[in-house]
Design a protein that fits this description.
Its EC number is 6.1.1.18. This protein has 690 residues and is of the alpha/beta class. It is built from 23 helices and 23 strands. α4 packs antiparallel against α5. The two termini are 39 Å apart.
């Protein structure tokens, strides 16, 4: 630790020259015990240094005593020249005693050695995010610094076991809202039904395919229920038939099964439409809801300005009659809505007499044309939670503002009230987690459908080659924070999760991307035709390139040393390569740095690789109104590849192509195999020939 401090304190970030009071006035501020310490520390210092030593004595807390001599030495060699320098050094010592400090520092603003320590720590916690080559150089340059950091981190990791996602549920605490408390008889009835078990639900709207952001909710609800011996519903929030389709309902259920979960019950909000309709009638009869005729624009303006609707005082009987006529199909879609009568001047805009029912003449995927009026999400959601005796209603932070409305509805309907908790929405860099915006990209032809492997939809991730285990590991690492919806998680962390799994589970094969056919002259009468990779060939070589280049010897792995005599190119494409076998001696082969992958022409078949990159050039495309202008034009590249003929290839099979990365068989058409690239090798692991 002292080694670390000496180097950090040597060049303070913020250095001030400061006029200090005279030494006599400084000493007046010291207690008798501090004066004793001062006399023990001083020797031949000048007045400025004496003042700093006096200031050091004042600042010495029990935790700083072991570093007293280090600080004193820095004062004497004039690395610390002001009170501000000394305060900075003390703060640094205090932070160094907590290694977690480094992860919270912005790397680009700190000193060189702190950058190195930060890289070491990040790589220790998230292997693969930092360049292995860079880390090796850092460890060589600062061995004491990095070794001490790793030791301390290891000790910290052993002492602190990570809290699992399902354990977090038991620590959630609610925001205090008076209406959230249940009556004793409601709570007793609820506990009788649930038998004291936790009851959760995953309530997606079937208006598109699920994406990575939904997995946080799947993991939090289903996994927690399984671990805590509770129940979890899969409930479709099918309150808007205009955007809902049976294909989405089926896909969502398949996604839940893909993650290995079995819902206790599969329900639909539409299952409860009769009861929800009766709840609306009850509120009208109690003068807590009214039928409104304002159009969308006027209603928005009135609510914004905290003005009452002109129809707010409509007679109860008239509202009842019109609402029933709305369900009977006697009125057009945009003429009437049913609104709650709460407080049009409320500070929370969601409580300014919100709409709870509207007319929709759209075929419903489950109930057909039975219903002409449909409840709004805010009205149906809380009632469904109550009917199903949900213990914990968990949703993302954008719904936090609606929590008061949730409890107002249940309180005024005299229904059981679940515990509500909001967590941060998941954002992943260089991609989009919004069903609406993904749908827009599909309409514009930017991507080829909901299962395009460039998307982070679950269907896209599945085609890309990701596994439920790797996705769950990613979710467990990012956990369920509540710090806001602005945080963006690096997609590299997701890539690292699948890479770590595939390194342990998939077979390695020799595959040649962008193959070039070469003739290897074995002797005067024998020619062996093999494929090598295009990036292993250069017409003009360089000292640090170990591939095929004229007048240079390289090794065909597991075969022999060859001499490249000439390379003929035409229009920047290699036309012919003349190669001669030199020797097959093992010792000679080992001497060469250039070890080239190859496949015999007679032992391989042709296939195609779809290589995917990040969909967007910018880290957070969601912040850009016209996000489609930031699409990465190279997000899909297509290559030829040669793979071994002897292997059997089935859709869904995964392989590691040596020196290239991990791939999955996406499809086989007329015997031709199409691979999707899952993820590349970790930095430093690809044996590049430069």
């Amino acid at each position: 630790m002292q080694y670390l401090l000496r180097n950090f304190i040597r060049l303070p970030l913020y250095h001030y020259s400061q006029s200090t009071p005279s030494i006599a006035s400084t000493l007046k501020n010291l207690s008798p015990s501090q004066l004793t310490q001062f006399n023990q520390l001083i020797s031949n210092e000048d007045e400025k240094q004496l003042k700093l030593i006096a200031y050091l004595v004042q600042k010495l807390k029990p935790g700083l005593v072991p570093f007293k001599q280090v600080l004193l030495q820095q004062i004497r060699n004039k690395s610390i020249e002001s009170n501000q320098d000394l305060e900075y050094a003390i703060k640094l010592i205090q932070k160094l005693q907590n290694p977690e400090f480094y992860l919270n520092e912005y790397i680009n603003t700190i000193q060189e050695k702190r950058i190195h320590s930060c890289l070491i720590q990040i790589n220790y916690k998230y292997p693969g995010l930092c360049s292995n080559e860079q880390l090796i150089k850092i460890k060589q340059q600062f061995p004491e610094c990095t070794q001490e950091m790793v030791i301390k981190l290891t000790q910290l990791k052993q002492c602190q076991s990570k809290q699992q996602i399902y354990q977090k549920i038991q620590t959630f605490t609610p925001r205090d809202i008076p209406e959230q408390h249940n009556q004793p008889e409601q709570l007793e009835k609820h506990k009788f039904v649930t038998q004291g078990k936790i009851v959760l639900r995953f309530p997606p709207e079937p208006n598109g395919y699920l994406h990575l952001g939904h997995v946080r909710s799947i993991r939090l609800n289903f996994h927690s229920a399984e671990q805590l011996n509770g129940h979890c519903y899969l409930r479709y929030d099918d309150t808007n038939p205009a955007n809902e389709k049976q294909i989405y309902i089926d896909e969502i259920e398949d996604n839940v099964k893909w993650f290995g979960h079995k819902p206790t019950h599969i329900t639909y909000a539409s299952d409860y439409f009769p009861f929800i309709f009766d709840c609306a009638l009850k509120l009208i009869k109690e003068n807590k809801a009214f039928v409104c005729e304002q159009n969308r624009e006027d209603m928005k303006e009135y609510r914004k300005n905290k003005q009452p609707s002109p129809y707010r005082d409509r007679e109860i009987d008239e509202s009842l009659r019109i609402f029933k006529e709305m369900q009977e199909g006697k009125h057009p879609e945009s003429k009437y809505t049913l609104r709650l009568k709460i407080d049009y001047q409320h500070a929370n805009p969601t409580l300014r007499d919100p709409v709870i029912y509207r007319v929709l003449y759209t075929e419903h995927p489950k109930s057909g044309d039975k219903w002409k009026v449909y409840p709004m999400y805010d009205f149906a959601h809380c009632i469904c939670d109550s009917i199903e005796n949900i213990t914990h209603s968990l949703c993302t932070l954008e719904f936090e503002i609606r929590r008061e409305l949730y409890y107002w509805i249940l309180t005024n309907l005299n229904l059981y009230k679940p515990f509500v908790y909001e967590f941060s929405r998941l954002n992943v860099s260089n991609n989009m987690l919004s069903k609406r915006k993904i749908g827009k990209m599909i309409e514009m032809g930017i991507v080829k459908g909901w299962d395009d492997p460039r998307l982070l939809t679950l269907a896209g991730l599945k085609r890309r080659g990701y596994t439920p285990q790797a996705i769950n590991e990613f979710i467990d690492q990012v956990s369920v924070p509540r710090g806001g919806n602005e945080q963006i998680i690096s997609i590299k962390l997701l890539e690292n999760c699948i890479r770590k799994e595939l390194e342990k589970t998939v077979p390695k094969i020799m595959a040649i991307l962008n193959p070039i056919l070469i003739d290897v002259e074995i002797d005067n009468n024998t020619i062996k035709q093999v494929y090598v990779q295009q990036d292993d060939v250069k017409v003009v070589g360089s000292p640090d390139f170990y591939g095929l280049t004229p007048n240079k010897q390289v090794c065909l792995r597991f075969f022999g040393v060859i001499l490249c005599e000439s390379i003929i190119s035409e229009d920047e494409r290699v036309k012919h390569i003349k190669v001669k076998l030199v020797t097959t001696d093992l010792d000679e082969r080992k001497k060469l740095k250039g070890q080239i992958n190859w496949l015999d022409k007679n032992d391989c078949i042709n296939a195609t690789v779809n290589e995917y990159s990040y969909l967007f050039d910018t880290e957070n495309p969601a912040d850009i109104p016209e996000f489609w202008n930031n699409i990465n034009k190279n997000s899909l590249r297509i290559y030829d590849v040669k793979v071994p003929k002897a292997l059997e290839y089935r859709i869904g099979d995964r392989f590691q192509f040596e020196r290239n990365g991990f791939y999955i068989v996406d499809s086989i058409k007329d015997g031709h195999i199409y691979f999707n690239k899952i993820v590349g090798l970790a930095e430093g692991e690809k044996k590049s020939l430069k």
